[in-house]
Write a structure and sequence with these properties.
Low-confidence stretches of chain A: none
Helix content of chain B: over 70%
Structural class of chain B: mainly alpha
Order of helices and strands of chain A: HHHHEEHHHHHHHHHHH
Mean pLDDT of chain A: 85
Number of helices of chain A: 15
Number of strands of chain A: 2
Helix content of chain A: over 70%
Order of helices and strands of chain B: HHHHHHHHHHHHH
CATH class of the domain at 96-294 in chain A: Mainly Alpha
Structural class of chain A: mainly alpha
Oligomer: heterodimer
Low-confidence stretches of chain B: none
Largest sheet of chain A: 2 strands, antiparallel
Radius of gyration of chain A: 24 Å
Radius of gyration of chain B: 24 Å
Mean pLDDT of chain B: 85
Strand order of the largest sheet of chain A: 1-2
């Protein structure tokens, strides 16, 4: 019962957040002129020549609160407007770009979490030893790195010296034309997964080669973040009485670290992992721009510079939604793992 | 007589517990090699910013932030005596750009973090001290802002306001204050219930006296640590936004934009892949070391002021 209560309370809170995000978007929207705002209501390109009627239909000259509800109704009906940067409706563009970004995140996230946990506990176990100093030093450098610059340096070195080993963009020309042909069935629109499902190993290899540098760029900063949290949480866990008890009972130090300390230290890391996806989306904007991978981030970055308002607002809304969903999952996981949350 | 009296006041002043505490913390900071490194980096950059007119004399005194350029050739030129760091595309002088860019970086860092500090402290104090419905409303607003990635919300705001460096700073202020408000609020909540606050109130101290004289000085440290880390983080985010093309117009002394200008000259012609190394590497290193300096300082401050870590 308590558990259910907890979850219901969290869901209500998240609804508040989501409504708040739409309000932020709407405040941003009011900064534009009615003509510019009209583009958020357009469904196809023919309407571009008839902005006045759109301003009338959607009441863009009416009071602000009326406009808010009219806009909200459009969003709930799935009309996100027309994206001028890619010349197609926002929702279509979103469906087209999403798989490429998810693919990038799917490769980066496990790497980040595993490497972060491993480095963090390594650093904590060898506290104040050279290993600790070295990993902490790496973390603080990683934390200070400008992602966009780091990506360009990787490109400079790898593309310059090993031309063609880790190329930019999503697929090489041959692979792309094969993927676009009728022989290749697109199940998920994620190249690596589709390639395996189609049994085309060379496409898979090609896609992975294109993924290596973006994944590294995306991961470096986040690994530093997870590592830092894992280290301090691990240090705290190792100072607890139950560790001493386990050691006193004669358990091997390795077992104690693995089964008692690390397991308890993971709890804060789970909380942060929820944040991770939100942060990855911000990282994707930079990474996809550098490596010219046509995904959500690439689209948003272009939209921001070309005043493509509907696409930018979509970015904010999507990130709000993503945050709400990942947080809900984290909260449930958290309550499941930690009885103090469930029963408290 | 007079001398004696004066002396006693000075002694009393030195015995003040807050001052002793501060001196202890200060000595700890000066003993930590990491914080020394951080402070030195910040000091070097500070000197570069102060003496920018002497190090890289501007040709046009009215507009010192415009990077001078000779001609419009798009191909970068390697370092020569006239241009110690070479020139980037369209012949903008890299040395001049990074030196004056230091001033831009300090301006972004101090303006953004300073404004955020003031807003965060005021809002957080109101929320924490008064509690109830005020607190509930403010904290929900904070939740909403914190549900969006900094970069993406800032990007949307700059799009709405129009692209310029000033608008990047405004956007970062709008996006940055909530975490400060939350941090101040949570430390106030714990301090509010302490006995010395009740004592001050019993002695007839007003709301403002209690907040500003008794609560804030004890609640401020976590926020100051955050601020130090954020000077770096905000400069980094601003640079990222400039890199995406949302910053000042082309030719303004700004590190993020200089990296962006270098984008077409990452890889050299066949056979000389690192021919244009200086174009992208130098502005990037300036960003890296600037941010590193503030992060090292922030880290050291955390180690010093965190009650769990100090005096071990």
């Amino acid at each position: 019962m308590n558990f259910l209560n907890y979850i219901v309370r969290r869901i209500l809170l998240l609804v508040v957040v989501l409504v708040g995000v739409t309000l932020i978007i709407f405040v941003l929207l009011t900064l534009f002129s009615p003509e510019q705002r009209a583009s958020t209501f357009i469904r196809d390109i023919k309407q571009l020549s008839d902005l006045d009627s759109i301003i009338k239909t959607y009441g863009l000259d009416r009071p602000v609160y009326v406009q808010y509800f009219m806009w909200l109704r459009q969003i709930l009906n799935g009309n996100f407007g027309w994206s001028t940067t890619v010349s197609r409706p926002v929702l279509d563009a979103f469906k087209f770009f999403l798989p490429h970004t998810i693919e990038l995140a799917l490769f980066a996230a496990p790497l980040i979490i595993l490497a972060g946990i491993w480095l963090g506990s390594l650093s904590a176990v060898h506290r104040d030893k050279p290993v600790d100093h070295f990993t902490r030093f790496l973390a603080i450098i990683g934390w200070s790195l400008p992602t966009f610059w780091f990506g360009l340096i990787l490109l400079m070195v790898f593309y310059g010296y090993f031309k063609g080993l880790f190329p930019p963009e999503i697929l090489s020309y041959q692979a792309q034309s094969f993927v676009d042909s009728a022989e290749f069935i697109r199940y998920t629109r994620m190249n690596t997964i589709d390639a395996l499902l189609n049994g085309e190993l060379w496409i898979f290899v090609d896609a992975v080669r294109h993924l290596v540098l973006p994944v590294i760029t995306l991961a470096v900063i986040q690994i530093a973040l997870i590592m830092r949290i894992m280290r301090s949480s691990m240090l705290e866990a190792m100072g607890k009485g139950y560790i001493l008890t386990a050691l006193a009972k004669g358990a091997a130090p390795k077992t104690v670290i693995r089964r008692h300390a690390r397991r308890n230290a993971l709890i804060p890391v789970i909380t942060v992992s929820g944040w991770l996806f939100a942060q990855l989306m911000a990282g994707v904007v930079i990474t996809e721009t550098i490596f010219n991978r046509k995904g959500l981030g690439w689209w948003w970055a272009r939209a921001a510079t070309q005043l493509d308002i509907p696409a930018v607002l979509m970015a904010v809304l999507f990130n709000g939604l993503l945050f709400v969903i990942t947080n809900l999952i984290v909260d449930i996981l958290y309550a499941y793992i930690d009885p103090r949350v469930r029963l408290g | 007589m007079f001398f004696l009296k004066k002396r006693r006041i000075v002694l009393d002043f030195e015995q003040h517990p807050r001052l002793k505490e501060f001196r202890f913390s200060f000595s700890k900071i000066l003993k930590n090699p990491l914080s020394i490194t951080g402070l030195s980096l910040i000091f070097i950059f500070f000197m570069l910013a102060v003496f920018a007119p002497a190090i890289a004399p501007p040709q046009n005194r009215a507009e010192p932030f415009r990077i001078p350029h000779e001609g419009y050739s798009v191909i970068p030129k390697p370092p020569t005596t006239g241009h110690p760091f070479g020139t980037t595309t369209k012949q903008y002088d890299i040395f001049y750009g990074v030196i004056w860019g230091t001033r831009t970086a300090f301006r972004i860092g101090f303006m953004v973090v300073g404004s955020i500090l003031v807003i965060g402290i005021v809002v957080g104090s109101i929320s924490g001290y008064f509690g109830g419905i005020v607190d509930e409303v403010i904290m929900r607003i904070v939740d909403i802002f914190m549900s969006l990635p900094l970069l993406i919300l800032a990007m949307a705001i700059v799009t709405a306001l129009g692209r310029s460096l000033d608008n990047i700073m405004k956007a970062l202020i709008v996006v940055g204050w909530p975490i400060y408000a939350r941090t101040i609020r949570s430390s106030i909540l714990t301090i509010r219930e302490e006995d010395f606050i009740k004592a001050a109130r019993a002695l007839g101290a007003g709301t403002f006296t209690v907040i500003f004289r008794h609560i804030l000085p004890n609640a401020i440290y976590p926020v100051l640590i955050l601020a130090s880390l954020d000077v770096g983080a905000m400069v980094l985010t601003a640079a990222a936004l400039s890199f995406l093309g949302l910053g000042a117009q082309e030719g303004y002394a700004d590190w993020g934009q200089m990296v962006s200008l270098a984008r077409n000259y990452i890889v050299g012609p066949p056979g000389q892949p690192l021919l244009y190394w200086y174009v992208v590497t130098i502005p990037g290193l300036f960003i890296l070391f600037f941010v590193l300096g503030w992060n090292l300082l922030g880290d050291a401050l955390r180690d010093t002021f965190d009650p769990k870590l100090r005096r071990k």
